[in-house]
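User: quick one, fold this
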Amino acid sequence: HQHSATDSARRAGLEASRAAAGVLFSYDYRELDKDFSAGKAVTTGAFRKQYGETTAKVVTPVAKEKKAVVKAEVVTAGVVSASPQTVVTIVYVNQVTTSSLAAAPKVDLSRVRMTMTKVGGHWLVSKVDAL
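Assistant:
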């Protein structure tokens, strides 16, 4: 039973991490409240608080000033470890940023380790580490 629960968690946690990365690393300066609310909805625990503080204090002022629009595209993702309640993934995310700073869109290739925790039947992000 433990084995099939872990396999199920591996699949569900991986899909949830891919979806969450797209939400967490995308925003539009014209819709920051909506975008960051969606981001908070896929997070849990101390990371939810950290995400809320970072987006409010760091990202919002810069995004508004630079009229930044960031679209995150998940290129690929894989599972590092899995248990029935916790899945750790590596997610490759390309962020395409358009802003008043540059004439052409800028592409950042990001690699993140995401810890997904099952909370009330949902897989939520409990930790993100840049690689």
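User: anything notable?
Assistant: The first helix runs from residue 2 to 24.
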